[in-house]
Amino acid sequence: MTEQKKKLSFWQIWNMSFGFLGIQFGFALQGGFMSRIFQTLGADKDAIPFLWIAAPLTGLLVQPIVGYLSDRTWHPRFGRRKPFFFFGAVFSTIALFFAPYSSALWMAAGALWILDASINVSMEPFRALVADKLPDSQRSYGFVVQTLIIGIGTWVASNLPWMMTQLGVPNTAPDGVVPDSVKYAFGIGAFVLFSSILYTILTTEEYPPEDMEEFEREKAAKKGAFSGMKEIFDNITTMPKVMQQLGLVQFFSWFAFFTMWSFATPAITEHIFGATDTSSAAYNDAADSVGSYLGTYGLVSMFFALGLSFVASRMKINRKLVHMTSLILGGFGFILIYFIKEAWMLHICFSLVGIAWASILSMPYAMLSSSVDPKRMGVFMGIFNMFIVIPQIIAALGGVNFLYKFLFGEEVINTMLLAGTLLILAGLSNLFIRDRSVTHD
């Protein structure tokens, strides 16, 4: 059925994926600087993962529900996925703008909770949109183009506080106050988030359900919250075997990246730069630098995705082999952070991480979209996201703190050793995926 869909041009795929630029601005600012905000407001390093917990907990509930609802939404003017893009963008923009103005830890944690939940309201329908509009032969290409846009967003957003400092915006503030450079960066990110999603809404048309009468009958037969929750639960219990196998890969991958987002700033500012006083110029300059180095993984993911998009548009690729190799390289990148002595070498480490990031954002979704019913693409994309948020919840509830101390020792830089180990395990977990119909384009 999906092969009857016409192939789209690069620019058509670009337009329908452009909203990911804003989504990634939100994620990059969140991942690169929320721990800095938490530290500025007085959080202890070991308490940082717990402050992140509300976001994945909410995602565990929100994403399958949003996917389910978007599958059952159709409006001749507003489409199926686009209403969710819009409302997610509105609340994400508000939360992103106000997050650095928090005056207490509970306010910052609340802003992160709203931001992450709202971004996910927009993000999961974006994943489903690619599967909605593209034939199976273009799925890898479509998800890789999304990853290209994500890479651009990651690099620019991660460097925004540093750019603001270079333009003369103050990079220090009184104890317990977030510097203006971070506030300006989050404000710019809020503008980009909303405007880029609005661009996709205005430039992209959605396909109506293939059989409108059947669509309306199914929607009428499954009204009510109980019916919806039952169907979501039924889909979870009957998920395709490939989805379960990919779930193991996702578990290790996202545990690793949650570890990085939670601990990269305190670990690297302390281990590489020797800065721990959050109100000092040394710490804030180091934190800006960490953000820039984190931007490297976004920049490299952009170029890696560009190369993948070129290859995927011209020949078949082995999705499993690409994903396994990319994750293992990223794992070695994390581990190298522990051993380097010069800050510039972080570019090498995060370049390897960027290869893994590009693959994480494209290959699992390409493999999944080839194995599920197109009519249930939204709900399955939402359920699949549970394999992203569950490891983050476990990590936030003490999994990171226990594992890095138990396996490697008390120093916070050991979190990067943990992240690397987990990413290598994620790569090796691809060996369990044996279905050639989803692993080969």
Short description:
It is found in: Membrane. Helices cover 75% and strands 0% of the residues.
Topology as H/E string? HHHHHHHHHHHHHHHHHHH
Helix content: over 70%
Low-confidence stretches: none
CATH architecture: Up-down Bundle
| Count of individual domains | 1
Structural class: mainly alpha
Largest sheet: none
CATH top level label: Mainly Alpha
Number of strands: 0
Shape assignment: globular
Distance between the termini: 17 Å
> Tally the helices: what do you get?
19
Q: Determine the CATH topology.
A: Growth Hormone, Chain: A
The CATH homologous superfamily is called: MFS general substrate transporter like domains
User: Mean pLDDT, rounded to whole units?
Assistant: 84
Proportion of beta-strand residues: under 5%
Q: Please state the CA-atom Rg, rounded to the nearest Å.
A: 21 Å
Organism: Algoriphagus namhaensis
Membrane topology: Multi-pass membrane protein
Subcellular location: Membrane
InterPro entries: MFS, MFS_dom, MFS_trans_sf
Describe this structure in words.
Helices cover 75% and strands 0% of the residues. The model has no long low-confidence stretch (mean pLDDT 84). It is built from 19 helices and no strands. The chain has 441 residues and is mainly alpha-helical. The protein is globular, with a radius of gyration of 21 Å. The chain has a single domain, classed as Up-down Bundle (Growth Hormone, Chain: A), CATH 1.20.1250.20. Pfam families: MFS_1 (PF07690). InterPro entries: MFS, MFS_dom, MFS_trans_sf. It is a multi-pass membrane protein. It is found in: Membrane. This is MFS transporter.
